[in-house]
Amino acid sequence: MPKQLPITTYGMEILRMKSKPVEKIDVKFIDLIQNMFYTMEKASGVGLAAPQINLSKAVAVIDVSYLDEYQDFKPMTLINPEIISSSGSSTEEEGCLSIPFIKAEVERAEKITLKYFDFNLKEVTVDLEGFPARVAQHEIDHLNGILFIDHLPKEKLKELKKELALIKKGKVETEYLLYSKLK
Prior knowledge:
The protein is of the alpha+beta class. It contains five helices and seven strands; from the N terminus they run H-E-E-E-E-E-E-E-H-H-H-H. The strands form two sheets. A five-stranded antiparallel sheet has the order 1-2-3-6-7, with helices on both faces. Strands 4-5 form a two-stranded antiparallel ribbon.
């Protein structure tokens, strides 16, 4: 039975580190992937990278199939992923399980060609566009120590300074609930 893992939050050092490549697949790794999918689902996410569960491994999981237009999209496990080309541009609102309650407009490539490894450590290349491409870029950023807020203009970051400080102090849920009741 999969278990829900704690999600690391903004301010934790691992979120700023480059992840180490996955070199072997074993039963323990398969369990980890199951736990990552379970954790992501329980947190109502569409992607989760290993640093978000306090693990420095270059692996991320993605599942956007809950959206009507992507219900045929197969959940993906990206092992040692790398974007090998990108094109176009699109700006949409993003959020992050590691930066709760904060959302902001982020510009990313509209289409990407992605190289990653499957469970047999066999190389796979796939083209993604739209929302799945955005999610993959977001998760690969995590594997490189980059957060979605790093893509924001300085003015927007200044606006979020107080909220980010609360998350860093671990007071986000209490403060957010109080704040939302005042609105």
